[in-house]
Amino acid sequence: MPDESLAVLKGTLEFLALRTLAGHEELHGFEILDHIHRATQQELQVEEGALYPALHRMEKRGWLESRWGVSEKGRRARYYALTTDGRAALGEEEDRWARYVTAVGRLAPERGAGA
Amino acid sequence: MTFRDPRIEDELRHHIEERADRLVAEGVEPNQARRIAETAFGDAEAIGREISRIHDARRSPVGRLLDRVVADVGFALRQLRRSPGFALAATLTLGLGIGASASIFALVKAVVLDPLPYANAERLVLVNEISPTGVPFTVSDLNYRDFRERLEGVDRLSAFSRADYATSLDGQAVQVVSGMVTGDFFALFGGTPVRGRTFAEAESGATPAPVVVLSHDFWMERYGDAADVTGSTLLLDDVSHEIAGVMPDGWEPVEGVDVWTPLALAFDSRDNHDYTVLGRLADGTGLAGAEREIQAEAEALGREYPATNEGWSAQLVPLKEAWVGPERRQAGHVLLGAVALLLLMACASVSNLLLARASARGREMALRATLGAGRWRLVQQLLTESVLLAGIGAALGLVCAYLFLPVLQALSPPDTPRLDAAAVSGTVVLFAAGVALSAAVIFGLAPVLHVLRDALSARDGTRTTGGSGDRLRGALVAGQVALSLTLLIGAGALGRSFLALQQVDPGLPTERAVVVPLMMSGDRYTPAERRTTRDAIVAAVAGIPAVSAAGSTNVLPFSGMNTMVAVNVEGRPTEPGTAPFVRWRAVSPGFFDAAALSPLAGRTMEGSDYEEAGEPVVVLTEAMARLLFDDPRTAVGERVAMGWDGRNYRRVVGVVRDVEDRALEGAPPPVFFIPDPGVMPWVNLVVRFRPDVPAPTERALREAVWSVDPGLPVPSVESLGDRFEESVAGYGFNLLIVGSFAGVALVLALLGIYGLVLFSVERRTREIGVRIALGARPERVARLILGQGLRLAAVGIIVGIALSLGLSRFLQTLLYGVEATHPVHFVAPVLVLAVAALAATWAPAAKATRIAPREALVSE
Lengths: 115, 860
Hints:
The structure holds two protein chains of two kinds.
Chain A: H1 8-22, E1 27-28, H2 29-39, H3 51-61, E2 64-70, E3 76-82, H4 84-107
Chain B: H1 6-25, H2 30-41, H3 44-56, H4 61-82, H5 84-113, E1 124-130, E2 136-137, H6 141-150, E3 154-169, E4 172-181, H7 184-188, E5 195-196, E6 211-214, H8 216-223, E7 233-236, E8 239-246, E9 259-262, E10 276-281, H9 287-304, H10 306-309, E11 313-318, H11 319-360, H12 362-370, H13 375-411, H14 426-459, H15 467-503, E12 513-519, H16 527-542, E13 547-553, E14 564-569, E15 581-587, H17 591-594, E16 599-602, E17 617-621, H18 622-629, E18 639-642, E19 650-656, E20 671-675, E21 682-689, H19 698-708, E22 718-719, H20 720-727, H21 729-763, H22 765-773, H23 778-812, H24 823-849, H25 853-858
Parallel strand pairs in B: 4-9, 6-8, 15-20, 17-19
Antiparallel strand pairs in B: 1-2, 1-10, 1-11, 3-4, 3-10, 5-8, 6-9, 7-8, 12-21, 12-22, 13-21, 14-15, 14-18, 16-19, 17-20, 18-19
């Protein structure tokens, strides 16, 4: 994947969006971001708009599909859903993240338990 | 320039709105919330560009353009779906406007613009000889021959005349209308027979060949489809004609012609102007050049044959113009003009709707400008919306045209030529598309101007007051008032003209009377036979118990036909060209009773007036007597002659009241009547019924004719009243069309005023609230609002009056007996509009007076 060397943030956003969508049938952008914010307890400090290029890129790759629908508030909104490809990609990403987290974890000093 | 899918903006905007809503729910002030949401979102424009790049990565420039168009159209469609009320109002208004235009255009195209569906039709010309008094005549046979031999600028000069023959079908006498033509006539109109042949130039002329070429309709009706009848014979007035060929379907240079026969030309006269002469401008010759040539030849003929041709000139008239006639052409132009006004009206209404919506969409537009949509991008999207509206309007309009056209055809004056040829054709579809596109530009312009200003000022942080939009809408509404007033004034003038027409007495009582046109052509009767037969027929018809009187005249009343001649009074010699040129009618015994014309002075005709031996007599109408003798009472006993050379005087034996038997055109025309001793083949029976018993049946009238001559066709029996109605039907049609346009326009204008004033009351709620809080009385507030509506109406009325004055000379051509610029035509519509405008402003004004100051002050 050519983007792999790009900023972690981008990959992170994609991963977080994929995971969020994995738990729902379909969501629009604001809902996705809302979930991410809640899941990360507002820790992720990004410009909210940055989510959208990520969503479009994944759609272009075939991981997501989108449709225009009407939101709960009656507004027209673009809804995203995970495709089969997207689910597979999420699996790979999760593996990669697990390895990454493990790697990072090895470097970091253990805290808490057993101290 | 990056081409951007407006859906990207939609998506980003949705996010910002959601965020702002969330903040507002948390207690943040709305404007503040929006600013925070926008900041949190980041550089929306850059994000939008990035997303565009993701999608455009592999697209060619054409593909991107296509994407953009598809996206813009989708966006526009969604905008329309979002406000279905607006979409419905706008597309219906446009659809009706375009439908009205397209159907009127289809009608005018068939009847006026495109009356000759033949190759090179624009090069076909009609030749008129012009009398020394400047009256156009058809052409005499010798002059035709000389023109044909000498003219180089006009090809295929052909002569035409019409004859009604008798033939029999299933044992009954029927009339066959023959177009008698010289051989070149077929080539002139590009006629190639579908069966057999036409006839050659040499077969017409001094010794015409006994051949006949059938029209397609006649062939189908009489012989059935595809029967090869060439070589068989057809009896025309008892003379056997060989069927030479059959013309193709739709080849009908002269309406109503059943068959074509070779024209008999004796070549013996220069002053019997009996033939319609047609030709085609030679290649490389213009109308003006060809006309100079024929005028020079006419002058040469005048020198060569001074007795008959001195002072005569000639003219060439484009056939299209000649056959449509000025009345129909003017009516066509006025109707097109009226429908153009209606269409402008529809455009103004849609423009107004768009402006109103643009104001409502001001925030959305501002946000989209914030999101980085460039101003041209916004303009493109707005124009896409306009074009889409126009496209839907055009489709709807074509459906409307398809529905309107048969109605228009049914309402049109029945004698309108080529009415059936009107159709929603490819040209009409193109016309509708062109109209729709122009309309889109016209009505799309104002919202573009408005939105550009608003959106840009919003981006620059200035607060929008909607001032430019209000001014634009005000101008539009004033324009609507002006257009509707113009149509109202036109309809009013046409209406008064129509009323004037109803009050005109044609002098020929039309109730309980019929006309029966008979053609007693020369091949069947000698003059002596014709007279005895005619008199016997008149007597037989008059003998029907329910008939009170019967008689005949050479000109069928209200048919548009006419016979005219110069007259002079004994003892007052005139020069050629100075004698009055008047109508004459040759009548049978009984005519004056049948026409209900009793003598005002002297007597009408008696039996002895028809005898060769007696003194020739003449009966004048009042206008005729006044023209020749100033005081009609002194006319009786004087002698007058037809022509100007003072020969063949006739004694004036009586004066009758004025009669109009042609079409109502103005003051009653001077007419004189002479007894017809049997020379006229045209025997048009006028039959008056007794008031006290049921009218006789058509069958009884036909039987009476056939009891005298079973071989004489009786093509029709028509009520004189119907004929009169038909002759003035054009006035009613024009009134109906312009009147209904005016009605629609008035409604649209009132809706415009109402909408604008209401809108401005809503916008000024706060200001009005302040005024009321400061103690302004309700009347003052009402006056404020009413004043606004009435100011608009006043501006519109002034412009409308100016527009009407400018257009009055076109309208005048359609009016009978009234002046287009008569003040009454202006006063009434202005009053109607002013009162209606007041009514339309009333509800918003009343609403303004009920504004509660407290609510008004917190409404922002």
